[in-house]
Amino acid sequence: DQQVKQNSPSLSVQEGRISILNCDYTNSMFDYFLWYKKYPAEGPTFLISISSIKDKNEDGRFTVFLNKSAKHLSLHIVPSQPGDSAVYFCAALDYSFSGSARQLTFGSGTQLTVLP
Amino acid sequence: DVKVTQSSRYLVKRTGEKVFLECVQDMDHENMFWYRQDPGLGLRLIYFSYDVKMKEKGDIPEGYSVSREKKERFSLILESASTNQTSMYLCASSLGHQAYEQYFGPGTRLTVT
After folding, report:
1. Which among A66, A67, A84, B40 has most CB atoms closer than 10 A?
2. Hey, are the CB atoms on A89 and B102 less than 8 Å from each other?
3. Nearest C-alpha of chain A: how many angstroms from B79?
4. Each residue of B62-73: pLDDT tens digit?
């Protein structure tokens, strides 16, 4: 059973408008969340992250919101640009985990298409 | 600038062949990871290594093994390739025990016929 879910496989928005990508998680031990962006034929690249002690983190056009009670996070891109067209993966980890290395649990991804 | 490279971008192998996927990182990272990416399933962790010669199973280790003889190199081995191992394979690395940000290679598209 997937612990991190991205229920929308695809999203299309007009250039200049807001893109909202959603992610839900079920594991209450997750307390740190990341978004990765992936272009075709390239590996994922880190975009933005948020700790569970915050409910919002902003970096330029990208803002991530976290609702811990709903176990839900979202990535907002404003304004959206054609170059933002990519697959976006949500990832989560248990920050307190004291094993040998931190492991990320990824969602299934959402293909964002920004139309010119 | 972190660089993770993978030996092949595309690979076609026959069922039953032994397959080696190589990954090299140049930033002296302790941790290295192998994932496979499949439509609708996202990235799933196969194996990871937190030190030379050390390895741990991820979520889907069956049918795979790994080798880490040098810090910069992490190999994924398919002992006897099967068609259900056709996938995109992604290697990643991260700096140390506390590190959460992983840096990915470009991926290897493996097709098993």
Report:
1. A66
2. no
3. 25
4. 999 999 999 999
